[in-house]
Automatic annotation (TrEMBL):
InterPro entries in alphabetical order: CFA/CMAS, CMAS, MeTfrase_dom, SAM-dependent_MTases_sf
Protein's recorded name: Class I SAM-dependent methyltransferase
Keyword presence, Hydrolase: no
GO BP terms, alphabetized: lipid biosynthetic process; methylation
Family, as annotated: Belongs to the CFA/CMAS family.
Length: 432
C-alpha cells in the first residue's frame, strides 16, 4: 500500500490535471515530490476533511489557520509555484462540478474520502469572521465589526509587524535597500506635499489608524488635524502618542464613522488605506461625503489598493481567505472606476500616481519583521492569527509584484465654480 504522501500527490495531480510543483510531507512522515522544492506539510488528516467540507480556497485557509497545513522552506517560492492552481486559475478552467464529470477526478475524490476518514466536519478556526448573513454589508454596524476584526488584534502585535512608524499602508521607497521607517516617513511627507499643507489649515484624516499621518502633518506642517477611526484600540494608541509628542492642542482623534463627521469644511482630507473598506455600493456616497466636507479649493488625497479590470465586471468575487480572515467585506475596484466615481461626486481629479512596486517592498519588510520574532508574534495575538498575517502579507507581496493588484494615490480638488483650482502649473510641483 502506498504511503500517505504518495497517495496525496496522486490525488492532487488527478484533480488538478497537472504535476504538483511542490513536495508533500504527510502526517505519517512520508514525503515525495520534486527534489529541492518547498515542502507542503500536511500535519493531520483533518486538513483533508477541511477541503472536502469546503472545497477550494476557504478549505485551504482553514487548514492553514488551524496549523493542519504548513510550508517548509521558502514561503514566497511555494506560493509562487502554487499560484496558478489557487489565485491565477484560467477563466475557462473547469468548475468543481464540471471536474467531477471526469471519472478520474471522481476516483480521486473517493480516494481522498478514504484517506480523510472519519468524514466529520472539523471545527471552524476561532479567528474566522462570524457573520449573521450578508444582506446588510457596509452599514455602520457591519463596518465597525469588520474594522474591529482586522485592527483590534493587539497594538503590540502591530508594533512588531509595522515597526516604529506604525503606518499600515504602502511606504514610498527611494531604494529597496532603505529602511522601512524612512520609506514610511517619505510617504507621509509626499501626502502632505500633495495636499499643500500649511500652518493653521484643518486636515481630516479618514481612517487615521495609529495616528502617524496626523502626528506628521501637525508636527511637520503646523496643521490642526481631526483623525477618525472605528477601532478603539487604534484610537487609544494614537491619543497616547499624540500626548507624548505634545500635540494634544493640534490633533484630535475620534472613534467615529466618517459618515458622521459634521464639522466641515476642512482645508484638506487624507484617506490612506481606508477606501478599500467602503464597498462598491457605498463608494459614490463616500466620495460625496468627502466632497461636502472639503472647502472649495480643498484637496483630497485618496490612497487605495486597486484590482485589475475584468472583461466581465459581474464576474468579480471577493477572495474567500481575505474575506473570512483578513479584511471582512473589503472590496477592490479598478483605478478607472475609482476616478470615475470621484468625478461623479464633483471632484476634479488632478493626478494619479501608481506605486505598485512600493507595496511589494513594504509587505516583504512586514513579513520579515514578523518572521524575525515569530514566537513573540504568536504570543501577542494567537498562533492562528500570526499564521494569517504571515500568509496574507506574503501572498499580497507576490500579487503586487505580478501585477495582479496595484495601489494608487489619487489627488482630487473640490474646484470652485470660477475654476480656480489652486494647483501649480507644473503637475508635480506640489507646493503653490
Amino acid at each position: 500500500m502506498q504511503d500517505a504522501a504518495s497517495r496525496l500527490k496522486n490525488i492532487a495531480e488527478q484533480v488538478l490535471g497537472a504535476r504538483l510543483p511542490v513536495r508533500i510531507r504527510a502526517w505519517d512522515g512520508s514525503e515525495t515530490g520534486p527534489p529541492g522544492a518547498p515542502v507542503l506539510v500536511v500535519r493531520h488528516r483533518r486538513a483533508l476533511r477541511r477541503l472536502l467540507w469546503k472545497p477550494g480556497e476557504l478549505g485551504l485557509a482553514r487548514a492553514w489557520v488551524a496549523g493542519d497545513l504548513d510550508v517548509e522552506g521558502d514561503l514566497y517560492r511555494a506560493l509562487d509555484l502554487l499560484a496558478e492552481f489557487i489565485w491565477e486559475r484560467d477563466d475557462d478552467a473547469p468548475t468543481l462540478a464540471e471536474s467531477l464529470r471526469d471519472p478520474k477526478v471522481r476516483a480521486a475524490v473517493r480516494s481522498l474520502l478514504a484517506l480523510a476518514a472519519p468524514f466529520l466536519p472539523p471545527p471552524v478556526p476561532g479567528e474566522e469572521m462570524r457573520r449573521h448573513g450578508r444582506l446588510h454589508r457596509h452599514t455602520k454596524g457591519s463596518d465597525k465589526q469588520a474594522i474591529s476584526h482586522h485592527y483590534d488584534v493587539g497594538n503590540d502585535f502591530y508594533e512588531l509587524v509595522l515597526g516604529p512608524s506604525m503606518v499600515y499602508s504602502c511606504a514610498y521607497w527611494e531604494s529597496p535597500d532603505g529602511t522601512l521607517e524612512d520609506a514610511q516617513r517619505d510617504k507621509l511627507e509626499l501626502i502632505c506635499r500633495k495636499l499643500a499643507l500649511k500652518p493653521g489649515m484643518r486636515l481630516l484624516d479618514v481612517g487615521c489608524g495609529w495616528g502617524s499621518m496626523a502626528i506628521h502633518a501637525a508636527r511637520e506642517h503646523g496643521v490642526r488635524v481631526v483623525g477618525v477611526t472605528l477601532s478603539r484600540e487604534q484610537a487609544a494608541y494614537a491619543r497616547k502618542r499624540i500626548a507624548e509628542e505634545g500635540l494634544t492642542d493640534r490633533v484630535e482623534i475620534r472613534v467615529q464613522d466618517y459618515r458622521d463627521v459634521r464639522d466641515g469644511p476642512y482645508d484638506a482630507i487624507s484617506s490612506v488605506g481606508m477606501a478599500e473598506h467602503v464597498g462598491a455600493d457605498r463608494y459614490l456616497d463616500y466620495a460625496r461625503d468627502l466632497h461636502t466636507l472639503l472647502k472649495p479649493g480643498g484637496r483630497l488625497l485618496n490612497h487605495q489598493i486597486a484590482r485589475r479590470p475584468l472583461g466581465d465586471e459581474t464576474a468579480y468575487s471577493v477572495d474567500e481567505f481575505i474575506d473570512a480572515y483578513v479584511f471582512p467585506d473589503g472590496e477592490l475596484a479598478p483605478i478607472g472606476t475609482t476616478v470615475g466615481l470621484l468625478e461623479r461626486a464633483g471632484f476634479e481629479v488632478r493626478d494619479v500616481e501608481s506605486i505598485r512596486e512600493h507595496y511589494a517592498h513594504t509587505l516583504r519588510r512586514w513579513v520579515a519583521n514578523l518572521e524575525a520574532d515569530w514566537p513573540r508574534g504568536q504570543r501577542l495575538t494567537s498562533p492562528g492569527r500570526a499564521r494569517i498575517w504571515r500568509l496574507y502579507m506574503a501572498a499580497s507581496a507576490l500579487a503586487f509584484e505580478r501585477n495582479r493588484i496595484g495601489v494608487n494615490q489619487v489627488l482630487a480638488v473640490r474646484t470652485p465654480e470660477d475654476g480656480t483650482s489652486g494647483m501649480p502649473l507644473r503637475t508635480r510641483d506640489w507646493r503653490n
